[in-house]
C-alpha cells in the first residue's frame, strides 16, 4: 500500500521537476486570483531595488483588491494599479511610492514578471507590474529595458494563461482592454467580473521552513532524494485531533539551501529540521507522514522543542 502511494507521489513530483529552474534563489510571493493561485519567485540579487519596491506593496497589502487592468493576448497581463468600487461603479488608483531606478538585466521571456513604466522615462516605475505571456525580448531594448525581477513558478502559467484566455473588454476609456469573467455587455460591472488579485509573501527558496499563522500556510524547501530539490507550500487542513497539512503547490529548486527539509520516498516521511512560526523558531525535527497520496495529505507524527 505504501509502495503504491509513493509511486503515485513520484509521478506527481517528476512532472513538476521537468520544469525549468531559475539561476538564483529568492523571495516567493503567492498570487491569488478568481481563476486560481500561482507563485512568483523574485530575483532578489538580480534586481534588489525593484524587488524591495515590489515587496513594500505586497507586505503593506496595497496590491490586495487590485485588478488585472490590461490584457494584450499573446503579449502581457498587467496589474498593480486599480481597485474597483462596485457601489460607485468607479475605479481608483492605489497610493504609490516614489519611482524607482531601472535595473534591467534579464530578458523579458515568457513567464517573467517585470515593472511597467512611462514611455521615454526608464526610471519611472512605481507599482504596476506585468507578466510576459510570450517571449517579448524586444522590450529589452525599449525605454532602457523593462526590468524583469521575477518569474512565475512551476505550473503557475496555467493560471496566467487562463486569465489571458478571458475576453478582453474595453472598460475604461483611454485604457487597454481588461480581462473580464462572465460579463454581459450593457450590464453593470461587478467585482465578480474582474480579475481581482491578492498577494502574500510565503517565504523564500533559500530559507528554513516557515508557517505563517495569518494564512495558515507552511512553506518548506525539501530535499526529496532521487526526486530532486523542491520548494513546497502546504495548507493547514486540520489541527484536531491531529495536525494535517496538504501540499497545494510545489516547484523545482536549482540548488540546495541551509536547513532543508527531507522527504523519504521509501517511508513517506517528511522531516523539517527547523520550523519557524511567524518568523520565530518554534520547533525542531518536525516529523510528518504522507498518509493520503491522492489528496497529498501529511499527518504530524512528532516534534522537538527549539
Describe it:
By secondary structure, the chain is mainly β. It folds into two domains: 119 residues, no CATH class; 174 residues, Beta Barrel (Cyclophilin), CATH 2.40.100. Helices cover 12% and strands 40% of the residues. It has three helices and 21 strands. The strands form four sheets. A nine-stranded antiparallel sheet has the order 3-13-1-2-10-8-9-5-4, with helices on one face. Strands 14, 15, 16, 17, 18, 19, 20 and 21 form an eight-stranded mixed sheet that branches. Strands 6-7 form a two-stranded antiparallel ribbon. A hairpin with a 2-residue loop joins strand 1 and strand 2. It starts with a helix and ends with a strand. The N terminus is likely disordered.
Short characterization:
It is built from 3 helices and 21 strands.
What features would you highlight for this structure?
single chain; 306 residues; mainly beta; Cyclophilin; 2 domains; 9-stranded antiparallel sheet; 8-stranded mixed sheet; 3 helices; 21 strands; 12% helix; globular; disordered N terminus
Amino acid at each position: 500500500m505504501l509502495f503504491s502511494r509513493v509511486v503515485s507521489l513520484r509521478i506527481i513530483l517528476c512532472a513538476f521537476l521537468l520544469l525549468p529552474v531559475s539561476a538564483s534563489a529568492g523571495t516567493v510571493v503567492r498570487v491569488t486570483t478568481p481563476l486560481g493561485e500561482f507563485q512568483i519567485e523574485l530575483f532578489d540579487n538580480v534586481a534588489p531595488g525593484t524587488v524591495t519596491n515590489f515587496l513594500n506593496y505586497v507586505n503593506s497589502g496595497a496590491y490586495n483588491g487590485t485588478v488585472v487592468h490590461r490584457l494584450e493576448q499573446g503579449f502581457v497581463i498587467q496589474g498593480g494599479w486599480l481597485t474597483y468600487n462596485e457601489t460607485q461603479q468607479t475605479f481608483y488608483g492605489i497610493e504609490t511610492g516614489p519611482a524607482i531606478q531601472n535595473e534591467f538585466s534579464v530578458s523579458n521571456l515568457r513567464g517573467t514578471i517585470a515593472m511597467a513604466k512611462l514611455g521615454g522615462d526608464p526610471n519611472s516605475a512605481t507599482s504596476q507590474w506585468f507578466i510576459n505571456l510570450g517571449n517579448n525580448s524586444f522590450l529589452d531594448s525599449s525605454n532602457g529595458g523593462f526590468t524583469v525581477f521575477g518569474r512565475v513558478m512551476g505550473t503557475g502559467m496555467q493560471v496566467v494563461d487562463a486569465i489571458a484566455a478571458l475576453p478582453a473588454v474595453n472598460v475604461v476609456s483611454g485604457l487597454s482592454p481588461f480581462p473580464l469573467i462572465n460579463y454581459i455587455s450593457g450590464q453593470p460591472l461587478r467585482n465578480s467580473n474582474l480579475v481581482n488579485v491578492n498577494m502574500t509573501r510565503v517565504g523564500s527558496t533559500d530559507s528554513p521552513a516557515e508557517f505563517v499563522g495569518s494564512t495558515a500556510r507552511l512553506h518548506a524547501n525539501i530535499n526529496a532524494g532521487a526526486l530532486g530539490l523542491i520548494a513546497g507550500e502546504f495548507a493547514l487542513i486540520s489541527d484536531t485531533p491531529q495536525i494535517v497539512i496538504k501540499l497545494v503547490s510545489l516547484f523545482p529548486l536549482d540548488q540546495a539551501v541551509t536547513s532543508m527539509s527531507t522527504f523519504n520516498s521509501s517511508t513517506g516521511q517528511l522531516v523539517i529540521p527547523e520550523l519557524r512560526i511567524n518568523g520565530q523558531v518554534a520547533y525542531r525535527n518536525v516529523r510528518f507522514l504522507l498518509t493520503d497520496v491522492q489528496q497529498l495529505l501529511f499527518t504530524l507524527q512528532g516534534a522537538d522543542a527549539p
